[in-house]
Amino acid sequence: MPARRVDDALNIEDLRRLAQRRLPRVVFDYIDGGAEAEITMHRNVQAFRDVTFRPHSAVASAPCSLRTTVLGTMLELPFLLAPIGSSRMFYPQGECAAARAAGKAGTAYILSTLAGCPLEDVKASTRGHAWYQLYLVGGRDVATASIARARAAGFQALVVTIDTAVAGMRERDVRNGAKQLSSGTPRQMLPYAWQIAARPRWLLDFFRDGGLMRFPNVVLGTGPMPYEDAASALAESGVSWEDFAWIKDAWQGPLVIKGVQSADDARRAVDAGADAIVVSNHGGRQLDGVAATLDILPEVLDAVGDRVEVLLDGGIRRGSDVVKALCMGARAVLVGRAYAYGLAAGGETGVAKAIEILRSDIVRTLNLLGCHDVAGLERSYVTPSFRKL
Ligand SMILES: Cc1cc2nc3c(=O)[nH]c(=O)nc-3n(C[C@H](O)[C@H](O)[C@H](O)COP(=O)(O)O)c2cc1C
Q1: 3-state SS of 308-363?
Q2: What is the phi/psi pair of residue 287, to 5°?
Q3: DSSP string, 184-253
Q4: What is the pLDDT of residue 389?
Q5: Which of 332, 318, 321, 345 is nearest to 375 (CA)?
Q6: pLDDT, position 388
Q7: Which residue is catalytic, options 42, 56, 282, 372?
Q8: Residue of 173, 217, 282, 294 to mutate, ligand 1, most atoms within 8 A of C-beta
Q9: Residues 6 or more apart from 23 whose CB is under 8 A from it?
Q10: How far is the CA of 4 from the centre of ligand 1 (A)?
Q11: Phi, psi torsion values for 311, nearest 5 degrees
């Protein structure tokens, strides 16, 4: 029987179902969906399933250490919470709630540029580390201003996402009328409004939290960027390698480049001054048909593994997936949907539950593998898949 409450969730899929029950379809599908035929989104998940473990048995059990150092900071967990735009639509004050849960668990939260809560509030919500993810929406001056705010607020690293030249084609969003519901006339909204009417509890929360959010961290001449302008603003704001000179100049701190999908781009990222990179295809939400991130991790590690910290995201739904990524050489991973489902199901409590599910999965997996410290995980504990790319 599927879990009926966040407390009863055994795995991330339980939280996903609870999120589906609480959210209007248009919001649930925004989280759950991917680009075009969703091939890459599913491939990310499948790549973890294709890796098999090779345990060391009859190893005396011992307390497990999950501590991981990323960019010189010790985290209690080997996973961080990935930047997820519009989290405030999933739950009131969503970004603050997620950051708070991450901090309490001893890990870092990465705040998206396209968030509904001001970055200062988010930083103040967590006693843990927070990184700021940058899109160049609004252009260089707007980005420079938000970089200065993020630095002043105490964000510890800047994450620049490079896989978003334009927004991916997420067909579920189009079919559900995401655009009409966020910016249409009442007449244009009408055919899609049943999704909202079917979730009165969410609707009440949404209005109590101020209704349709703006983007308070993208301040244009006219004020915070309106919600409906996001897709067109993204299309006009792709980052290029030349931009990293001024970005680094403005930031003056640890730089992470997210969205690396080949050895060549990994080398470019290092040349551009990255301290860490994230092998990521945006959870299969951008270019459909690219390889699973786990499948390109080896070539990236061969190219730059001795020069930068290599993180990975995409498809992580269980703690055993985190362990597999670490065995394959990632220093740490980011989780996206896994905590977004928790947030949508139950706010901070739901994120805490998602984190706890992954944490206890990792501990159990380490014990069963016969390796009690994530720092000791390496290739001999897994057989990678040899599927053709
Ligand atoms: C609903 C949603 C919104 C996202 N928004 C952003 C964003 O604003 N910036 C960004 O760099 N990545 C964004 N991502 C990508 C995530 O940071 C991460 O790369 C991805 O979710 C990892 O895949 P997973 O969801 O399978 O864990 C988003 C992902 C989702 C699911």
Answers
A1: CEEEEECCCCCHHHHHHHHHCCCCEEEECHHHHHHHHHHHHHHHHHHHHHHHHHHH
A2: -85, 110
A3: --HHHHGGGTHHHHT-HHHHHHHHHTTSS-EEEEEEETTEEEEGGGHHHHHHT----TTHHHHHHHHH-S
A4: 44
A5: 332
A6: 46
A7: 282
A8: 282
A9: 31, 90, 199, 202, 344
A10: 26
A11: -105, 170
Q: What is the Å distance from ligand 1's center to 22 Cα?
A: 20
Ligand 1 site: residues with CB under 6 angstroms?
30-31, 44, 82-85, 112, 114, 133, 161, 258, 280, 282-283, 285, 313-316, 334-338, 340
Separation between Cα atoms, residue 90 and residue 116, nearest integer Å: 10
Residue 255, CA atoms < 13 Å, CB-side half-sphere: 21
Residues 122, 88: Cα–Cα separation, whole Å: 11
Please say if 282 is a catalytic residue: yes
Query: Mean pLDDT per 10-residue run, the chain (389 residues)?
Result: 92 98 98 98 98 94 95 98 98 98 98 98 97 96 97 98 95 95 92 95 96 93 88 85 98 98 98 98 98 98 98 98 98 98 98 98 97 97 72
Verdict on whether the full-model pTM lies above 0.85: yes
Residue type, 81: L
Here the tokens at position 163 are 């896989």
Contacts of 317 (CB under 8 A, 6+ apart): 11, 12, 13, 45, 48, 337, 338
Length of the chain: 389
Instruction: State the maximum Cα–Cα separation within the chain, in Å, rounded to a whole number.
Output: 67
Q: Which two tokens stand for residue 28?
A: 């649930």
Angular region, 328: left φ>0, alpha ψ -120 to 50, beta rest: alpha
Q: Which amino acid is at 104?
A: K
Q: How far is the CA of 12 from the centre of ligand 1 (A)?
A: 16
Residue 132 phi, psi dihedral angles, 5° rounding:
-110, 125
Cα separations in angstroms, 85 against 65, 116, 250, 328, 386: 31, 8, 23, 28, 34
